[in-house]
Amino acid sequence: MIDKPRRQPVADSNNGEAKPKGKPTKRFLVVIAVLVGLGTLVVFQLFRWQVVEHESLGSIARVHAATLIIDPVPMRGRIMDRNQHLLALDIFEYSLWVTPEQATDSQNRSKFGELARLTNKTPGQIEEMFTSKRIHVPVAQRLDEQTRRNIVALNLVGTDWEITPKRMYPEGPLAAHVLGFVNASHIGYYGVEGFYDRQLVGELPALQPAVQEDPILALCNVRETKPGRELVLTIDRAIQYIAEKELFAAMKQYDAPSGNILIMDPITGAILAMASYPGYDPNHFSTTAAERLLNPIISDQYEPGSVFKVLTLAAGMDAGVVTPNTTYNDTGELEVGGRPIFNWDRGSHGITTMTDVLAYSLNVGAATVSTTMGKDRFYTYVRRFGFGKLTDVDLADEVPGTVKLPGDSDWHESDLGTNAFGQGIAVTPLQMLRATAVVANRGLLMKPHIVAQIIDDGQIVDVKPTVVRRAMSVETASQMTEMMINAVERETALASVPGYAIAGKTGTAEIPTVGGYKTEDTIASFIGFAPAHNPKFIALVKIDRPKQSPWGSKVAAPVFRNVAAQLFSYMGIAPDNVAVAERFARERERLGLIADLQAAGQPPQ
Questions:
Q1: Cα angle at 386 between 382 and 388, to 5 degrees?
Q2: How far apart are alpha carbons 33 and 24 in whole angstroms?
Q3: Residues 295, 45: Cα–Cα separation, whole Å
Q4: Which CATH class is domain 91-164?
Q5: pLDDT along the chain (605 residues), means of 10
Q6: What interhelical angle do 145-152 and 112-119 show, nearest 10?
């Protein structure tokens, strides 16, 4: 039998001698002594807290349990229209809590029925809350001011209130897409609420270092908050109402599922109204379908159709390729890049001027201009007018549109012809309106903006108009204005307001699909500015898939006229022809076409 080797003693690192087995070392004894000492201290402290000071510490705990300490939420800044009408503000919501240990008053029980009624609960649920073993129990949340007053009048024992701000939109659905909304976490989404969220939220000062180090002080610390900055918008509440009212009427009249009306000051880029249908009520955003929350005027793109001819002709004139009186022989067809281009009426018009091209909205004429310019010059102007890029408007979730350029994998030579009349190029309504406003603004491209002033603790900061670039010469803008006036007078009488010179252009765009264009569905639009020689506003009316008529001249132009007539009255714009205007004003009054804004209710959603 083989003996197992014995385990050798471990040599001490200090003297190399073997330690006797089982005999504790001096270091081991020190460790044992320290552990025993710490254990004794812990036992002593537990005895002191649980036995000697039980009553005093229990009293402190009950005081803190009965006092609801909530980190304050800064008040969000108010949002107003250009005339200081409130469009968004914070109000208070109240949450009721009970401390059951303190709610032992016998009179509480007799009030359970009334409290249950005020909080939409049963008396049994209320009794369960007031007799719970928990330290603090929520009874009801997000109560309004009147309900809080009614509950306070019950004189309940052992209850506390938590106060939190809630965003309110007093005008309901008015300008919803402009404003956006604020969620339950006090975060702004969409519109100015989303874009200016950091400025609107306010400030909560940080805890002092000494307070941070003491948990009790940190818990009980009450910090003064600084309200967020206030915004004064360029939006005019009355003009916004006109736009929404007329848009809703057009949706019903033409049996259309959606549409937009956008109104802007072409000289400053200030947006006066921005209306889209369908809308929503930001007070109840959580019940709204997600796709309705986006602002289609800046977030949806579409092919603009013939309104784009204004910019094609302006580019051709500014480049020196054509003049208003330049002629060409319109045969009714032009092949570009192997693709035939026809006029909307499939007709030929013979010897035709550029002024006629705009008035009769001839596709062949527009394509003649773009092909004569050549791809480099044409697309230089397309980019100069701001297409394919963000406008940098101060609203959340803007998209840049889609412009295919020579050299891109998806660009084809035929695009040079079709882009000239607004096909194969995608824009947002804001991009289209801003670009056309260059004509009204003597050639200057402006940055559109929706905030006029930012107010920070009483200090007012004005938002100045911003010129992006000169997109065309003053002479070109003047010539284009006269051509647009001519187009309205000759072919778009339904957009006219007697007594006023209006410059405008219609658009009837087919809607692209995977297999081509849906000829049965169109986007009918009209862009116009007035008074033409001293413009105070420019407006885009866009009606999607109208069932009653596909044409912009029949659908969008009359809506523009209704809006413009009310703007002339509301804004106090003097007519160009006083005698004609006075007769027309009397006729409008007789027909009841002037809206009484003071008596008007909320626009429908």
A1: 80
A2: 13
A3: 63
A4: alpha beta
A5: 44 45 62 66 58 49 41 83 96 90 85 94 93 92 91 91 90 97 93 97 63 47 72 98 98 97 98 97 93 96 97 98 97 96 94 97 98 98 98 97 96 97 97 98 98 95 97 97 96 93 96 82 97 97 96 96 97 82 62 46 45
A6: 180
What residues contact 499, with CB distance under 8 A and at least 6 apart? Answer: 575, 576, 577, 578, 579, 580, 581, 582, 584
Please give the biggest Cα pair distance in the chain.
Answer: 135
Q: What does the pLDDT look like over 218-262, one tens digit per residue?
A: 444 445 667 899 999 999 999 999 999 999 999 999 999 999 999
DSSP 421: G
Task: Find out whether 280 and 296 touch, Cβ atoms under 8 Å.
Answer: no
Beta bridge partners of 259: 277, 543
* DSSP bridge partners of 271: 264
Look up tokens 């929503």; give the residue: 280
**Which class would CATH give 237-591?**
alpha beta
Q: pLDDT at position 588, please?
A: 58
Chain-centroid distance, C-alpha 393? 11
Instruction: Report the distance separating Cα 504 and Cα 561, nearest Å.
Output: 11
Task: Return residue ranges of the chain for CATH 3.40.710.10.
Answer: 237-591
In this prediction, what percent of the chain has a pLDDT beyond 90? 70
Q: Are 62 and 101 in contact (CB under 8 A)?
A: yes
Tokens found for residue 590 = 């007789």
H or E segment at 525? strand 516-530
The token pair that represents 304 in the structure block: 């603009």
Q: What pTM did the predictor assign?
A: 0.81
Is residue 542 within 8 A of residue 525, CB to CB? The reply is: yes
Bridge partners of residue 79, in order along the sequence: 88, 231
Q: What is the mean pLDDT of the chain?
A: 86
The Cα–Cα gap between 277 and 232 comes to: 24
The two structure tokens encoding residue 198? 């950091």
Asked whether 447 and 441 are in contact (CB, 8 A), the reply is: no
